[in-house]
């Protein structure tokens, strides 16, 4: 994530880039400082990768509520959207969190193999042979 944060800063975009576990692990600090609410862009990367505690779910709701209709949030996940409600487990909190993510949002569902897998599978390019003159 540091590379993405540095790149956005170089381009002049005030943003915070963090994994979902980073946000929820440090939510009590960020909720109090309003840093996440003020950023024009927040990227929650790898949503659903690790379990969230009950407190982390409430913190995530507070962060999303502070940002709702004020700034942009991007959520990336390998977990299909139709499984997010079950992942969050608490029906009331899940409804509130997902409402803030989905309402006025755009969903881009990517299909096909992972680009990382494609790069790993691609055969290595043969080394160029020097020409004899």
What is the CATH architecture term? Answer: 3-Layer(aba) Sandwich
CATH superfamily: P-loop containing nucleotide triphosphate hydrolases
What's the alpha carbon Rg, rounded to whole Å? 19 Å
Distance between the termini: 49 Å
Share of residues in strands: 5-15%
The neighbouring-strand order within the major sheet is: 1-2-3
The helix/strand order is: HEHHHEHEHHH
CATH topology: Rossmann fold
Q: For the residues shown, what is the average pLDDT?
A: 75
Amount of helix? 40-55%
DSSP helical segment count: 8
Tell me the structural class: mainly alpha
Number of domains: 1
Low-confidence stretches: none
Largest sheet: 3 strands, parallel
Q: How does the overall form come out from the CA principal axes? A: elongated
- Please report the first level of CATH classification, the CATH class: Alpha Beta
Tell me the number of strands. 3
Walkthrough of the structure:
The protein has 133 residues and is mostly helical. It has one domain (2-112): Rossmann fold. The protein has 8 helices and 3 strands. The chain has helices spanning 2-10, 20-25, 27-33, 35-38, 54-67, 84-88, 91-102, 115-121, and strands at residues 15-19, 41-45, 72-75. It has a 3-stranded parallel sheet. Helix 3 packs parallel to helix 5 (54-67) and helix 5 (54-67) packs parallel to helix 7 (91-102). The radius of gyration is 19 Å and the shape is elongated. The termini are far apart.
List keywords for this structure.
48% helix; 133 residues; mainly alpha; three-stranded parallel sheet; elongated; 8 helices; Rossmann fold
